[in-house]
Amino acid sequence: MFACSTRLSRRPAAIRSAALAVGSAVVAAFAVATSVPAAAAGELAGTWSGSGTVTLANGAKEKARCRASYSHAGGSSYAMSATCATAAAKVSQTAILSQNTPTRFGGTFYNPEFGVTGRIRVILSGKRQTIYLTGSAGFATISMVRR
């Protein structure tokens, strides 16, 4: 799911593209859960915040600040609710992630408002995580710390 302020639809195409890329930067859609040890999986649950860079398909770069909350959704799946902002826009979204290894999560994202899909990877390292996204609107890298 993807929610965006109504002001965004009245913005120029470049700003809408930036907002879409930010949304893509933390959006993950439904993926099949895999079985992995639960000890490391519990490290993802909680609230995280941080920043990173969004690179649009046209090569333009935007700095983004993000906050994400993860909760255990059963098995090795986690629900995510996140909000990111750039100078151009603020975007909120929800997602489900699957755990692939004790410290790696992944899946695909889908933004129904703009009809965009792509891939997401989350890598945990203690109280830090790095999110990598690739989609038709561009790509992003966001580094977060546990709050």
How is this fold's topology laid out?
Blueprint: E1 2-4, H1 13-24, H2 38-41, E2 46-56, E3 61-74, E4 77-85, E5 90-101, E6 104-111, E7 116-125, E8 128-135, E9 138-146
Antiparallel strand pairs: 1-5, 2-3, 2-9, 3-4, 4-5, 5-6, 6-7, 7-8, 8-9
Topology, number of strands? 9
The biggest sheet, with number of strands, parallel, antiparallel or mixed sense and barrel status, is: 8 strands, antiparallel, barrel
CA(first)-CA(last) distance:
24 Å
- H/E element string? EHHEEEEEEEE
Reported by name, the CATH topology is Lipocalin
Number of spatially distinct domains: 1
Low-confidence stretches: 1-11, 24-39
Q: In CATH, what is the homologous superfamily?
A: Calycin beta-barrel core domain
User: Strand-residue fraction?
Assistant: over 45%
The helix count comes to: 2
CATH class membership? Mainly Beta
Mean pLDDT reading = 74
Structural class determined from secondary elements: mainly beta
Would you identify the CATH architecture? Beta Barrel
* Rg over C-alpha atoms, rounded to the nearest angstrom: 14 Å
Instruction: Kindly report the spatial arrangement of strands forming the biggest sheet.
Output: 2-3-4-5-6-7-8-9
